[in-house]
Amino acid sequence: MPLRSSPRYGAPSIEDLIARRDLSAVFQPIVDFDDGAILGYEGLIRGPAGSPLETPFALFAQANAEGCVIALERAAARTCIEAFARLACEGQLFLNFSAGALRQIADASDDTLAVLRHAGIEPGRIVIELTEQSAIPDVGSFLPVLATLRTAGAQFALDDYGTANASMNLWVRLQPDVVKIDRFFIHDIASDPLKFEAVRAMQHFANASGAKLVAEGIENEADLIVVRDMGIGCGQGYFFGRPNAQPARMVADDARQAIRAGHIAVFPETTRSGGASPSGGMASAKMLVHAPALQRHATNNDVLELFNRLPDLHAVAVVEHDEPVALINRRSFMDRYALPYHRELFGKRPCLLFANASPVIIEKSMTVEQMAKLLASDDQRYLADGFVITDNGKYAGLGTGEKLVRAVTEVRIEAARYANPLTFLPGNIPISSHISRLLGNDAGFYACYVDLNHFKPFNDQYGYWQGDEVLKFAAAVLADVCDPTRDFLGHVGGDDFLILFQSDDWQERVLRAIHVFNEGAQRFYAPDDRLAGGIHGEDRRGNPTFFGFVTMAIGCVHVESDGGPTLYSSEEIASVAALAKRRAKQDVSGFVLIEADESAALLKGHAEPPQLAS
């Protein structure tokens, strides 16, 4: 018999606890978001209350030291099953097992079923969770274990997905009925765009595989509503209840109200500059010119023959072992050959004689920002010579300065549709997407179009750099008045912003934004202009005009829920909100509200037609 470590001083051994049946069970509810009901409980084990072995961590650490982890797992399962039966709880019972314990249970399935039958629990109510500590060296040999358990009627869950051994490899090969997302990904998901994207990827795979997702670690309303609105069906965490020997049979009122909350979540957007900037793959694809290359030993006659055969080729790369070593520009080369006797003198000489031995080289994976630095660098050879594009150091093709400028511009414009490059706020595509989600969920909201009065003359006089500072200040003011869990703030472009309010006190927030901005914007003016109350400039027709300080105007449109008069698309909402903004610019308060019935009339042509902001 192998030697075992002695139990902690003053604490019984695990075998003693099992023999004396000195273990107890607690249960944590798992909630279905569709109806707010408890669909089942996870059974968890506890040692003697007040002892050093009370917690599961201490229990299993001691069991590992004594070499009886599997025995403890089986005793824990028996304890949970019997306690669950005594409580007469409805729904499913989730039980944790390691891979080793599951093998033993499968080998003695009749004994396990006997325990269930004796307790009066149907095997179909059991969900077996494979714990994250379980490494499975040979997944293929583990599949029959699952088949045995499923034949007995139990379901199988992959626990704590995303950590330790719970990997996509296991998901694909074991095909679990349930996948429990680890609490790391759920905690603060309402404000963490990377966690949100990770869980959304899990959700896509769950939809493909047919697995049900359970979000673990839900501790607040904001995280719950994001998870709910993502379409994840079930959740578990302290927000619904802590593990308890006498678990609640119904979800508490505050949790039920949160599940049924009428507002929809504002999904966190990946709008940091690094996240918003696209990779160079899109840009390099736009400017890549597939062109033949010449080997290093080629002659100038070979270059001439290639240029004559391909009249549109602006340059040719010289390569050695598929790696670029030089670039020959067509115009420079042909100008030399036009000189008397150059063909006769240099035709059979190596092509490197007239080549640029240090060409500009762009790796295909280079980021757009790195490419853009070329445009601002002192080395402008690519404008005349073009440049070489490589793929992992190997020659892929050529590019021109014109194509580089166009590609960087197009990619940046496309990126700005998703996130504004100045404020990093969501751009037009996320704005339209969120409006569609609001309409699709029949959520009432206020669409508020924000514009800055006298911004253009300020920008003209103080310059774009100072104008950008004003725009960033406006974005900060608007973000400060928004509840990030309810209110969506986007940057349409220029000095135009759009807020989609679900906060009940939205009007108070709007008026606070106008006041704070109008007061703070004056600090961007020179002292003399502050004393004068504004600046002198020209209007759009070139007439001398005095312009007051930059101020904020916000026009709002009410979009009702519950079948009232409504608008039907993001374009219509943006149009009417833009009209409200134009009215607000003429109002001394800087604020105008258009109610839903007037919006419907505007769209039907019973009032002045809506106009989108320029």
Automatic annotation (TrEMBL):
Enumerate the Pfam families for this protein. EAL, GGDEF
Which residue spans traverse the membrane?
none
Q: Which InterPro entries match?
A: CBS_dom_sf (IPR046342), Cyclic-di-GMP_PDE-like (IPR050706), EAL_dom (IPR001633), EAL_sf (IPR035919), GGDEF_dom (IPR000160), Nucleotide_cyclase (IPR029787), Rev_trsase/Diguanyl_cyclase (IPR043128)
Top-level taxon of the source organism: Bacteria
**Every GGDEF domain range:** 443-599
Q: Which GO terms describe its molecular function?
A: cyclic-guanylate-specific phosphodiesterase activity
| Annotated EAL domain residues | 7-257
PROSITE patterns registered for this protein in UniProt: EAL, GGDEF
- Kindly give the SMART domains that the UniProt entry links to this protein: EAL, GGDEF
The record's listing under NCBIfam families reads: GGDEF (TIGR00254)
The record's annotation in PANTHER family points to: CYCLIC DI-GMP PHOSPHODIESTERASE PDEF, SIGNALING PROTEIN
Identify this protein by name.
Diguanylate cyclase/phosphodiesterase
* Organism, scientific name: Paraburkholderia phenazinium
The top of its lineage is: Bacteria, Pseudomonadati, Pseudomonadota, Betaproteobacteria, Burkholderiales
